[in-house]
Specification:
The protein has helices at residues 12-62, 75-82, 88-91, and strands at residues 94-99, 106-110, 121-128, 134-140. The protein is α+β, with helices and mostly antiparallel strands and 152 residues long. It has a single domain (39-147), classed as Glycoprotein, Type 4 Pilin. A four-stranded antiparallel β-sheet has the order 1-2-3-4, with helices on one face. The chain is rod-shaped, with a radius of gyration of 25 Å.
């Protein structure tokens, strides 16, 4: 009499297929996670820059369509001249700040995010119209990844 036994388990091909599938998913997921992590950290910085834009725009309107006549080169001068308060979470991401006198160009130097963007600058440049409106354009220092520059 023949007794048939039922085999259970996975074959080597099935296991290798699963390992290959997981490796492909990981090779896609890790770089995407890194980019999204950098974007999230940059959001802290860009939110602080947007607060500076709002305060600088108010200053421009209140002072007969003129930007501050002196450079604002630190967080304290932003607070005293423009009334901008930078959250402590963003302070760890900012190496230095500069609002160029007379032109209103805002430059934040980045630190503590990733080696691809550390010591690079995010720049907001104003363009004024005859009606007193200010249009802001994002820019960055050379070598800054284009995919991380904020959009309008």
């Amino acid at each position: 009499m023949l007794i048939l036994s039922k085999k259970s388990g996975f074959t080597l091909i099935e296991l290798l297929s699963c390992v290959a599938l997981v490796a492909i998913l990981v090779s896609i997921a890790i770089p995407m996670m890194k980019v999204h992590s950098e974007k999230a950290k940059l959001t802290e910085l860009t939110n602080s820059m947007n607060a500076t834009v709002a305060a600088l725009g108010a200053y421009y309107l209140d002072n007969d369509f003129k930007f501050p006549q002196i450079d604002l080169t630190d967080i304290t001068s932003l607070a005293t001249t423009l009334g901008v308060s930078i959250p402590s979470a963003a302070l760890s991401r900012i190496a230095s700040v500069n609002v160029t006198g007379n032109t209103g160009t805002i430059t934040f130097v980045i630190q503590g995010i990733d080696s691809t963007v550390n010591n690079s600058s995010l720049i907001l440049s104003p363009t004024t119209t005859n009606e007193g409106a200010v249009i802001w354009s994002w820019g960055a220092s050379a070598g800054f990844p284009a995919k991380l520059i904020p959009m309008r």
